Amino acid sequence: RSAGRLSEAALNRSLPPKKEQACRCQPLRAVQKTMAAAVEAPVLEAPAVDYKHSLLAGREDYDKMYKRSIEDPAGFWGDIAKGYHWEQQWEDDHHNHNFDVAAGRISTEFFKGGRTNIAYNCLDRHVQEGRGDVDCLLWEANDPGTDRRMTYSETLAEVCRLANWLRAQGIKKGDAVAIYMPMLCELPIAMLACARIGAVHSVIFAGFSPESIASRIQDCKARVVLAASAVKRGKKAIDLKSMVDKALDVSSKEGFEVKKCLVCHNASSGSGKEVTHMKDGRDVWWDTEIPSQKPESEVEWVHSEDPLFLLYTSGSTGKPKGVLHSTGGYMVMAGTTSRYVFDLQPGDVYWCTADCGWITGHTYLTYGPLLCGATNVVFEGTPTYPTPARSWQVVEKFKVKQYYTAPTLIRSLLGSGNEHVTAHDRSSLKILGTVGEPINPEAWKWYSEVVGEGKLPIVDTWWQTETGAHMITPLPGVFPAKPGSATLPFFGVAPAMVNEHGHEIQGPGEGYLCIKQAWPSTIRTIFGDHDRYETTYFAGFKGLYFSGDGCRRDEDGYYWITGRVDDVINVSGHRIGTAEVESALTLHPKCAEAAVVGYEHPIKGQGIYAYVSLREGEALDDALKKELVMTVRGNIGAFAAPDVVHWAPGLLKTRSGKIMRRVLRKIASKEESQLGDTSTLADPGVVDQLLSNRP
Ligand code: WTA
Q1: Which GO terms describe its molecular function (predicted)?
Q2: Residue 673 CB partners (closer than 8 Å, separation 6+)
Q3: What is the pLDDT of residue 34?
Q4: Cα–Cα 20 to 30 A to 427, which of 120, 212, 336, 612?
């Protein structure tokens, strides 16, 4: 049996004929080969695990709840939402949505009329219910031996101090605040402080280049930036503040002034305050400004549909999109998925290895676990430093119960010796999770057998920045897992698998993964560009949210995600738009044109393969290759650096001038025997040229 990948024939069939394309939606491209779901991959049986879910007795409970969640979303979510604090009750008909462009503006509303505050629900609620002394954040520095504990009361006090400072800068409800920080306690604190006063945070992963920081700051007009001095990742010290300085200079030249930059001195980076450049009047230190603030601050009760945060993510085309999430629905779904998928209960020690710079760090590090009252590990370092045993040392040290990571990390660990794992006591572990990309059977097996000793459930959670929370995911102990399958939809999620005409496929099959009706944490808009929002997600298939992923559904109704079907590649769980890398490459004066595709990479899942054609008279030597890679690093960030640069004297173009990525992908994957039809190429000779020219 094949383990869930769109076959080549199916995906060629699936390419929508041009004239039938609904509107401005990007054409779907061939599904990229994903490791998880390669047809050749053996289908593993998951070991039977003995896990008792604290809320669900079994499949029947799930089926019953799931049915109600789809048939009566307002009632289902309304009942769940009562578990949170609302300053003002929502209206009776609080839930509406429209996913059909023909029927008017695309919109989603949950808990309309209700007023709440997510930071209050994450912190104050627990303190008031007597859990103020429970550990909230357990911080582990990059270098072993340095750590920090903060209880719920202490975290709340710090959030209030920062909230007061933000207010003193004139930040009000609805204003955007940019955050550029490494994984310190201050990062979730910064997010919560914004939420407390109704400000909209925009966290920028502390690996983005100054250019990327500048464009994000300007897009949402953030007048205040919360930053940190520096960070050590593994052995490498990185000066973060100088990146911010450059970004603010760029912004300033482009006419946008950031008024204040609050800088958290990160002592664990090894550098003293004196080496950090501070601009008079603009830059101030966290440790001189914040401690003197009052540890209480008023809560801004916001409407359920008021924005909570913006998070930029890559799409098929153009610049990154500011995905906007609103408050009430996001809160309820973040809390509910955390509660059910990780079976998270107050005081559970939970560790999500993601960075708050990505959606996983928003929903499953900051908000979801704190809504559940869990004790959250915040890890500054890299899981393989100083040795590949670091993850399991931390698990042992804090007695972690739920551990949530990405397949790329599992793949990088599985090659480095099981003794690193087995030397550490992992008896505290109860649930293992993965996210970000399909998990290949080999990685699944190692995770299950070596880390979990065959005894732990694995939750392979499929979701996206846009979905805000888990969408298709196992529930531990509730239904059997199948390695490589994200299994069944979460409550309130109605997947539709459609063919190229948007017709829903019933039963087993392969197709494009869409969602039929709104779930509470549906992306509400792309900040400042509602048209692009409608075009990107809703114009492709009538009445449906289109995820950009392909999938297969088996005879048990289980979903197997096969990966992106658009020009987004997934490198170590990071979404990268090929168009962004291409435009970064062409910023180099010697690069005339570039085409970027993904290829299978043993650790990263996908690697970045760049074809470049150079200006007249230029040749690609090692020095130029390096410069091209540096151009991408400088413009996007190190994580987007191409792994392979292939000199393409001519790019493969059709007679109508379109780059034939399908063929470029085959060449990058060394599958030139399966190039398929190349008759529409303007110059078929280019294929041979590329093949003889491999780097
Ligand atoms: C991929 C990360 C297979 C998918 C939460 C999706 C996955 C993209 C899984 C979103 C999974 C995420 N199995 N693929 N369990 N989880 N993906 O926005 O292609 O950074 O569209 O959100 O990651 O990436 P994003």
Answers
A1: acetate-CoA ligase activity; AMP binding; ATP binding
A2: none
A3: 39
A4: 336
